[in-house]
Amino acid sequence: MKINFNQVSFTRKQKTILHNISFQLEGPKIVGLLGRNGAGKTTLLSILTAFQQASNGTVTLNNETTFENEHAVEQMIFVRDHNFEYETEKVGDYIETYAKFRPNFDHGYAHQLLKRFRVSKDLEVAKLSKGMASAMQVVIGLASRAPVTIFDEAYLGMDAPARELFYKEVLNDFMEHPRLIILSTHLISEMETLFEEVIIIKNGRLFTHEDKEAFQQRGYRITGDEQSVNEFSKDKTIVATQQLGPTKSVMIYGSFTDDDQRRLAELNLERSFVSLQDLFIHLTEEENEDDE
Amino acid sequence: MRPTLDDTRPIYLQIREMIEDEIIEGRLLEETQAPSTNQLVAFYKINPATILKGINQLVDAGILYKKRGVGMFVASGSKQQLLEKRKEHFLREYVEPMHKEAERLSISEDELHSLIFKRGGHPNED
Amino acid sequence: MTSKQSLAIRTQTKEYSSWSLWYISIYLLIYIGINVVTYFTQGEITWTFIEGSFSSTTVFMLIVGLLSMGGFLNHYLSTGLTRRIYFRSVLFSGILVTVVIVIFTILLSFLIHGVLLATGWDQLYSDRIMENQSMFPSIVESLSYSASILLFFLIGWSISFGFYKHWVQGALYIALGVAITMITSHPLFESILPIYFTLFFIGFYVFLLHRGTRTLDVSP
């Protein structure tokens, strides 16, 4: 499975939502698509799955354009928060309308999953609670076993135990049926251990696409005497600052060299690592929010 | 096994250390089977690639080896190897800084020795 | 035709057929009910099965068309199908269901007429019916009915297509639909073979919907 975005832009009603995005994904792999609300995550995914057409650039799956390509779109499933208000069918029948067109759909697995999420097949879809509706969507997404499986904030409405179950099932099923799984989220602390790679979108632009651990290690915190901290960080990218009396702590984004290690000891500073969530929050903060 | 992971340190390192600890503390014996990737994925809910990264480092270091079709096993001599490595680490990370700090606080060699000896008695901090 | 395309057409046709079955059953009940009432009040049957079915079927198919846009298109894309498959499935199923409804209605009107003949109740037909012999339609009339019904289906579909894009477009498609309905049913044009008009507008709508849905944005 190979997905390629080549200089993709998306403009509607004179508003540019995605700017010149390029990246390549190769599976099997679990990828986290991260970005704040409104950053363009859903738009990016709906272009990939051909719900919308890019204004510029090309999107391919295994070197085939995805838009209106029967062969490409049948290999992808896009699970997202959906309004079921008018869906009078029963859960079992509704799932069947999807299963019909999914050649790899595993009915036995779908049945097991429904039981695990405690969703009865005989309930009317419109009457499901928000958590149950999300669970049903997740069941369709996993049991379809599409080579490219995408969950866009699919857990919305699920309570904590259901979300735990979802993460567990994603990993289990990924091991048994390796494929490209894309998880779009802003609940990073809960899901970060699932990702092998991360794609971060900020204001419609690609901020980074890299191995999760490599990305995380480019962020670190330096703490110590204010002057020494200022001295150490003067030519570095500071993403967050905290101060307590004479002690200052800064979060730095960038590589850490042997030379940095030497200076750290000289200046008697302490270096600590930061979580993916912290790094993400500070890197995607809007500039005007920093002033607060 | 440690029940949870620390979210500020690379996870593959923590997986690696966790297996090392199991070997050093004798819970995982030489020539026995190490926990499988699947078991670790289920236990920690981590991406299998991350776990493999930690395990592969142990394979490269000669601590684990792969038996075809069976899984990962603890190499013989691995406990000794780890103990030596950890001793070095202990010297560098604990003993040396301790001496440095002792110098700063003007604690004499003898005083330091008796302090270490008193360990577990009544720490005079607090 | 790919296997997915034919599966999609079958699925779509099944959906429309189940709606149609409901519609015809309800229409039949109303037909019987009204004739029972007119029998007791006026002592005769004033209305044949086929006469009333034409206008109500056009309304029914207009509604089927109106319901054929957003939900279905979204569902098609969600199950990994294309807009092209969606367009063909809705069009073919619309045509299929139109033909089936017309044939079914004609068969039913034969059956009803047969029952009336057998029971001697055909004497109750009003003079107007006897004069016009409007118990069942001719082949030309049936074809012309079918075409009109299909046109209404396409008008409904085009209106919901318009609203799917923007309410102004929806309003324009309503205006267009009204204008075309007036032209095709105006007595002035009826005398000069309205079926050609109807066929022309069917072609026009098919072209328009085909072009319109080809690259349409679908909110996921």
TrEMBL record, chain A:
One of its GO terms (molecular function) is ATP binding. Pfam families: ABC_tran. This is ABC-2 type transport system ATP-binding protein. Keywords: ATP-binding, Nucleotide-binding. InterPro entries: AAA+_ATPase (IPR003593), ABC_transporter-like_ATP-bd (IPR003439), ABC_transporter-like_CS (IPR017871), P-loop_NTPase (IPR027417). PROSITE patterns: ABC_TRANSPORTER_1, ABC_TRANSPORTER_2. It comes from Geomicrobium sediminis. Residues 3-228 form the ABC transporter domain.
From TrEMBL, chain B:
Residues 9-77 form the HTH gntR-type domain. The lineage of its organism: Bacteria, Bacillati, Bacillota, Bacilli, Bacillales. It holds the Pfam family GntR. The keyword DNA-binding applies. The keyword Zinc does not apply. Keywords: DNA-binding, Transcription, Transcription regulation. CDD domains: WHTH_GntR. This is DNA-binding transcriptional regulator YhcF (GntR family). One of its GO terms (molecular function) is DNA binding.
TrEMBL record, chain C:
The chain crosses the membrane at residues 21-41, 53-73, 85-112, 143-164, 171-189, 195-213. This is Uncharacterized protein. It comes from Geomicrobium sediminis. Keywords: Membrane, Transmembrane, Transmembrane helix. The lineage of its organism: Bacteria, Bacillati, Bacillota, Bacilli, Bacillales.
